[in-house]
Amino acid sequence: MKLESVLQFLENKTILVTGAAGFLAKIFAEKVLRVQPDVKKLYLLLRAADAKSATQRLHSEVFGKDLFRVVKEKYGPNFSSLISEKVKVVPGDITCEDLGVMDSDLREQMWAQIDVVVNLAATTNFDERYDVALGVNTYGAKYVTEFAKKCSQLMVFIHVSTSYVCGERAGLIKESPYRMGETLNGVAGLDIDAEKRIVEEKLDELRREGASEKETRVAMKELGLKRAKIYGWPNTYVFTKAMGEMLVGELKGDMSTVIIRPTIVTSTYKEPFPGWAEGIRTVDSLAVGYATGKLTCFLGDTNGIVDTIPADMVVNSMMVAMVAHAKQPSADAIYQVGSSARNPVRYSSLQDYGVRYFTQNPWRNKDGKPIKVGKVTVLKSMASFHRYMAIRYLMWLKGLELVNTAFCHSLNGTYSDLNRKINFVMRLVDLYKPYLFFKGIFDDTNTEKLRVAARESGSVETDLFYFDPKCIDWEDYVMKTHIPGIVKYVFK
User: Fold this and answer.
1) How big is the chain by its Cα radius of gyration, in Å?
2) CA–CA dist 239, 80 (Å, integer)
3) Taking a C-beta distance cutoff of 8 angstroms, is the pair 130, 239 a contact?
4) CB of 80 within 8 A of CB of 66?
5) What is the C-alpha to C-alpha distance for residues 73 and 66, in angstroms, rounded to an integer?
6) Helix ranges restricted to H, 134-271
7) pLDDT tens sequence across 371-411
8) Which of 62, 29, 94 is nearest to 319 (CA)?
9) Which residues of the chain have pLDDT under 70?
């Protein structure tokens, strides 16, 4: 694997990025503009009805973020002219053929100019509506692949998936592809077009019954979880992402294609500055619950490994893989980007870091009073968790409900607060149960080969395009970078 300079590769290239308002997509766009202003063009695809609303989204949800402060400082008053020259916002929708790009002249221009396609569009909610997740994560992957194949100058297509397409497998999880119709539990009959028909039939049925918007949403969420579990996946998100990978593999032909599978993506490690984050991600839900006093017990294996990777390392791996595979088609270029194989961190360590951080820097409630935190009671089985909840909370809640009724609902505030806390914990457990006892280690042999090739090339700017998790001191990163980052950017 011979690699050239990433900066030289990016020079004079035209790149399409889908899901441009997403977490990783913004970091990708910022990095390109900051390190290589001589990129030819960045087409940023945003879901929007027209160019005006797409442009508004671009400025409010992308360039308006603090993430871009470093690149703005670098170019000063020239930043606006750089954006107008190098960035073209594209209103579209990846759930449609030709990505929903209605302007035929723009479509033809894109097909003639684009060198690289990066698919970062996704919905990452574990319990997303099935119609939404199937449209974005599965059929979106299909339509982006088909669009990329129409680009006459295309050098490489990067599709970003997730390592957790493996479901609840244990042991060493290889960087292997998912073939069309393959299931995790061996149940035959998975047909992606049939899944689409099932969704359409269910929506038709709900319309005939006059279902409300809420009822339709709940039914679609339940359908997604049901369909996922039939074939061995724990939730709608990873099921639809796995089917997306199947379609990419089936449709790519001889197009140079790379699948990037990050693990749990956390705040930036170093660039453009440490600690930038957006949205509550998987492990951050636990931090939020803990800091605000909602989480006093949780279920899981404290010796279990939590596979997390900072967002800037994911983006850097994408860029190096882009260079490695440009005009170099290979059978299965799959890169799992995580930390469990090289530099694992355990739940017990994360719990310890959280206790120490929020003891020293307590979260304040709406009245400005600090919320005291203590050690979380960790329960190591579902049976012990249900016993704990029943004895400690549910009996007390039932009693409080009776007292509240007897006293003409004068304790509504207390009852509602306790009920909300219990519901918060139960929902977290239900969503994350498959990962709280996760026993897998993500093999990253391909990713390590990429790192070695970058180091040995003499051309790759490894100081700029770093993605080796071995350099992370987890205590330092979590205590000084990640938690302060989510407090500043997510809790604000």
Assistant:
1) 23
2) 41
3) no
4) no
5) 11
6) 140-149, 192-208, 213-230, 236-251
7) 888 777 777 877 777 777 767 665 555 544 444 444 343 33
8) 29
9) 281-282, 285, 297, 390, 392-425, 428, 492
Q: Spell out the residues 6+ positions from residue 293 whose beta carbon is closer than 8 angstroms to its own.
A: 363, 365, 371, 372, 373, 421
- C-beta neighbour count of 433 within 10 angstroms: 17
C-alpha angle 399-403-409 in degrees, rounded to nearest 5: 125
The overall average pLDDT reported for the chain is 90
pLDDT on residue 126: 86
Question: Angle CA(246)–CA(130)–CA(437) in degrees, nearest 5?
Answer: 75
- Going through 228-343 in order, the beta strands assigned E by DSSP cover 257-262, 264-266, 297-299, 305-306, 308-310, 333-337
The catalytic residues are: 237, 241
pLDDT at 400: 40
Q: Judge whether 411 and 400 are in contact, CB under 8 Å.
A: yes
CB atoms near residue 394 (< 10 Å) = 14
The predicted structure's pLDDT at residue 422: 67
For residues 329 and 257, what is the distance between their CA atoms, to the nearest angstrom?
Answer: 7
CA angle 1, 443, 7 (to 5 degrees): 40
Tokens standing for 114? 């684009």
Q: Tell me, rounded to whole angstroms, the distance of Cα 181 from its chain centroid.
A: 24
Give the pLDDT confidence score for residue 395 in this predicted structure: 52
Amino acid at position 54, single letter: A
Strands 345-346, 305-306: pairing kind? antiparallel
Element (H, E) at 465: none
**Residue 138 near residue 238 (C-beta atoms within 8 A):** no
Residues 6 or more apart from 241 whose CB is under 8 A from it? 122, 137, 138, 161, 162, 164, 165
Residue 393: predicted pLDDT: 65
Query: Whats the size of the chain, residue-wise?
Result: 492
